Amino acid sequence: MKRITLLIVLLCMHVIMLMAQSKKPNILIILADDLGWGDLGYLGGTIKTPVIDQLAKDGIRLNRFYTAAVCSPTRAGLMTGRYPDRFGLRETVIPPWSKFGVNTDETFLPEYLAKAGYKNRAIIGKWHLGHASLKYHPLHRGFTHFYGHLNGAIDYFTHKREGELDWHNDFNSSYDEGYATDLLADEAVKRIRQYSQEENPFFMYLAFNAPHGPFQAKEEGLLKPRGEDDLKKQTYAAMVRSLDGNIGKVLETLKTLNIEDNTIVLFFSDNGYAPDSPGSSGELKGSKFTEWEGGVRAPAIIKWPAKLKGGKTMEQVTGYVDVLPTLLDIAGITEAPENPLDGISIYPVLNGSKSGIQRNFYLGEGALVNSNWKLIEAGNNNSIMKLQTDVLFNISRDIGERKDLKDTETTIYKDLKTKLETYNSIKSSKQVPPYGQGRKGFVAPKEWGVKE
């Protein structure tokens, strides 16, 4: 009788373990804003980032993770799994005075996840994908909760942009006081605690605005500066340290609630450091606004203890448009999307069932990269790059993009030029206007309330 009882107990435990393993994971995407490759300790930076460094040690370091060269396009590609060129958003962001928003016929990531049983789908932080109409609002794009700001470059203390409060809790203005990075982390912790009490898995998109300008830090976070230049550097470093510490609060909450093992944590930056900031691209060339590696190759880490073996570096070429198809693959969503995806699922590489996937990744503005080679065309890209002629790099060996090989590797050069034609031909019937268009005489709506 005792043996039978023991057998039943063991079988029950086995069933419980199988059920736990088969439960869909919680998903937490943590996005930094203008964080440079060289701003993190694990990539050789001088700013102390112990939390992100530990995440890199425990998780999988995505060493070849690419984004767009500027913010709104990356966020749009993340939400849709499609290159932002397809809906007219590649060269610039959506400024406060613009009525542009990502087309509503594009399906966003939380809309897909809703079909997979993700009841709670929160965006906490910076939106930047359209604010002039309710149809562009996060709560009309698949999210069930929104806390944060619609525009970019808000004041970290007053939470204002263009003189008006841009801080929201769902459709309402929020008058919460405090440093923006702290408030976003606190809200994330609050919601994780709430969502963890339910049976359904949750999805959270935690989009910090740090360390994007304006460069503002809490007084207690500053070291002792010696001069004006040093003050800017110290402010930026304090912003990065605050980001790191607040990510730590969120990750510690997962651990405290015993949901760390079955929560996917994906961390990355939306592009490289801004050229007007004291940030760093480290060993990479270039910055935000360029298709050099320093502008589009982002620090990125993924961790999922229940399914993915951490403590390693992955060299698979991947990036922002792959996030959606990878998560849909993991969530078991097999329904074909209405709009064909540009991204691919890299889950087979993450879990070790494939050693790699050969593919070309479009960086926009006449730039293409694959596992070995990178081509940047002259004339298509931002003038800040000052390219007089095309350049070809063996990027697997020349991470700093120092030696142009187009004149010696002519076959590869011609092949990539041909492939680029397809991507460069992508056009949209609607384009975001140039950044300054409509700025003169613009008056922000009261507390950035969206009514139409």
TrEMBL record:
Keywords: Calcium, Hydrolase, Metal-binding. The keyword Iron-sulfur does not apply. Residues 25-333 form the Sulfatase N-terminal domain. InterPro entries: Alkaline_phosphatase_core_sf, Sulfatase, Sulfatase_CS, Sulfatase_N. SUPFAM superfamilies: Alkaline phosphatase-like (SSF53649). It comes from the Bacteria. Transmembrane segments: none annotated. PANTHER family: ARYLSULFATASE B [PRECURSOR], ARYLSULFATASE FAMILY MEMBER. This is Sulfatase-like hydrolase/transferase. It comes from Olivibacter oleidegradans.
